[in-house]
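Case study 2.
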Amino acid sequence: MCDADADADDLEPAAVARALEEYRALLREHGPAWGEDPIGYVRQIETSAFLMDEHDYWITCLQKVLTARPGASAEEIDARVQELDLHEVVRDALRGRVLDNLAALRVLPDGVTLEAVPKAVLDGGPARTTLLVDSSRDAPVTVRVDGVAHEIPARGARLVPVTSRSVVVAGDTRVPLGSLARRAPAGRLRLRAGFPCRWTVAGADAQGWYPAGAPHRIDAHRVPYFHGDDVVLDVPAELLTVRVTRGMEYDTAETEVTPDAGAETLVELTPPRLYDAAARGWYGGDMHVHMNWAGDTVGTPAQAAAVQHGEDLHVLNLVAGNVASRRVYDREALEHWAGRDLPWSDAAHIARLGVEYRNDLLGHLYAFGVTAPPGRFHTGFLGAADWPPNGAGCRELRDLGAILGYSHPFHIPVEEDDPPLAALAGGRNCSSREIVADAALGLIDSLDVLNHSSIQATAVVYRRLLGAGNALAVTAGTDTMLSFQRRGNQSSPPGWERVYARVDGPLTAASFADAIRRGRTFATTGPWLELHVNGHGPGDVIDVTLGERVTVTARTIGPEVLRIELRTADGILAEGPPGEVTAELTVREPTYVVAVAVGPRHERSMHYSGAFAHTSPVHLRVDGRHVAREADLRWCLEYLDRLEDLLRDTARFDAPEQFAAHLDLLDEARGVYTARLTAAR
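Prediction:
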């Protein structure tokens, strides 16, 4: 772990420290959006502390717009969403629920009521929370909080920070706030596992307790957590639940304790291992983590170090990227550390600064292993042109030594037999629309099939790309943001999804990147997943003859698996229960084999869809020919045609030459797929 005696300058060199102070000033001045251009997902940031599931936000916004304007176009919906009152969006999305961090003052036609989850406070200190003022009156009402007037429109809502000592007056009625807090005697816990871990300490009503100075993070299951070992924290002297785990390779250990008032109570608890990937030559990484990306706090290198070691995450790619304007967060850190391991790296843990290259029409890319910052980090923001194509960004990042993959690729479910238009739907968003072209041209190395958006849709497109002859590795990127304490799976710990890569020799940034380039990977929300084809694993190429039979085996470890699937380019070869599934495949044409593990929602999986794991392919080559399935090639060619239509209708260009550059890229990719189609006949 990061040396506790390291000089502060090692973790926060002067330029990085200045940037962090600037971020803190932005947070103080503008709140969690940090003054970013208020496009749709930036406005969602302002609600994320209360609406942990961003789907609740978008569904509520859509319902409100369509109620007011039935049949509105996608462009009109986008415009109207930006006009909505976010306080009312939060109120309507909650549908009467009362949260641990949001008390509700209901202003009724004939009075007021206060609904709250009471917070324990130590030795009588004040409780801090936010008050949702929710009026059902047909006329405006004034609510004063500590002397400040808040005008609530008819049937409107307002979010107002308060403490349990605030003075709140609704109209002429003083609102007692006694239910916001309850006094509890103070005790102290010392938590020790013998190595850095992820801890949860929760009391009544699941209220979380944290060490002094630790961010008050909660994960996608609304479970509070922090990282460390031999940590001390002040807690109420009452029944508490203590849990400890350490990333996906460990199970959870749990105990209950009632600390003595005014004394320190030691809890020694160690999480049991489920599997040891490194002992098998596999190392797990998260290719897409932000230290800062707006948010309700400011992420620091010290926090990143604690998280990486506490999760036993072998490889951490901290990406510098913009939000909705020209500012690139953590650019100063990238400029300082580009091409070097971060100071807390060791033989089993590598951390690097990388890049998220972003365009909200063409898609977002991660870059790992860059030796220097690129000249361009993004296109298309603040009304700028969607130019050049992402392919130009890929080429520059490749020249800087990076491996590349598309991140959080698709957001709307796509079925196996859906036409390409299904993957291109959804208006202007960050779907990975250029991937079909960039994959054909060999400009990217991987696809984050494991992501925070639609894993199902991404897996469908990924297998289409494989069937069309593209050698892409499956990877994982959580898009976790250390600058958010409460944002669903994006405030979950980095590494809640991982790509495991089979590395030759010691773990280094270069050896890990090489394993991804060679496709020696699987990605998972937790389950261990092995694939063997005649003894070969993911990334291997096997030369076989027509009619030859090969043996395919997949194995899993993990309590959350419900079913294993063995798939080829033609679909499911075999499926069965967790543990081990074996099948014989008679080779009729060049193909690939992948394994998939699926399961229901589970506490070990932070993804809303449940547990999932997917391998990269083992390639079966016949007479020197790789897989080139006609149906997949035609799907990709039609996709490129529909993408051209989308660019013509939606993209922003300053000159015809800019659109022509996109057409050149698409035509080059069409040439690749057409040549494969001709050769396959």
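Residues 656-680 form the longest helix (25 residues).
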